[in-house]
Design brief:
The chain is mainly alpha-helical. It is 51% helix and 0% strand. The N and C termini lie far apart (62 Å). Pfam families: RHH_1. This is CopG family transcriptional regulator. It comes from Sphaerisporangium dianthi.
């Protein structure tokens, strides 16, 4: 593995360190991941929104009509 030095502003450095810590990664791991996400041609697509709609519930598909009815009623009440 090669070592590369880059210069960052204090603000950007703090943001990178905070994000790496938040994700439980080292700054080096986070930086490699960020660079790879911006390089074309590695053959892998990044699904940036993967998990964005995760609700923590495991029976949504079974209760979809109940959930949609409740949401429709709530929005109808708000619009009135």
């Amino acid at each position: 593995m090669k070592r590369t030095t880059i210069k960052l502003s204090d603000d950007l450095d703090a943001r990178v360190r905070h994000e790496a810590e938040r994700r439980g990664m080292t700054v080096s791991e986070w930086t490699r991941e960020a660079i790879m996400a911006h390089l074309p041609g590695d053959g892998r697509r990044q699904l940036l929104a993967a998990g964005a709609g995760h609700s923590g519930e495991d029976d949504i598909s079974e209760r979809i009509h109940e959930i949609l009815d409740r949401e429709w009623a709530r929005r109808h009440r708000e619009a009135s």
